[in-house]
Amino acid sequence: MNADTKKRVATRVRRIAGQVAGVERMLAEDRYCVDVLHQIAAVRSALDAVGVELITAHLESCVVGHGGGGEHEKAKPMTREELLAEVRTVLAQFLK
Length: 96
What we know:
This protein has helices spanning 3-28, 33-64, 80-94. Helices cover 76% and strands 0% of the residues. The chain is elongated, with a radius of gyration of 17 Å. The longest helix has 32 residues, at 33-64. Helix 2 runs antiparallel to helix 3. It has a single domain, classed as Methane Monooxygenase Hydroxylase, Chain G, domain 1, CATH 1.20.58.
């Protein structure tokens, strides 16, 4: 993941942490359940957006750029079939 993507994702994760803290406050304040559920839905949507950004970055750098020196430094050498299996697995987990 490049530095811009990493910074963008970190900013979004901090924002999500604030949203989760907001849910905690809402519960402590005994707020209306539907309002809490709306906030939870917003958190889930934000997490999904971060996940899509990470998957996209992974595909760009680690899958498309695999073997060309553009992949993540911790990426292990894989065959094309292993890369596809990894993508299939991560997408299946992410889309549950």
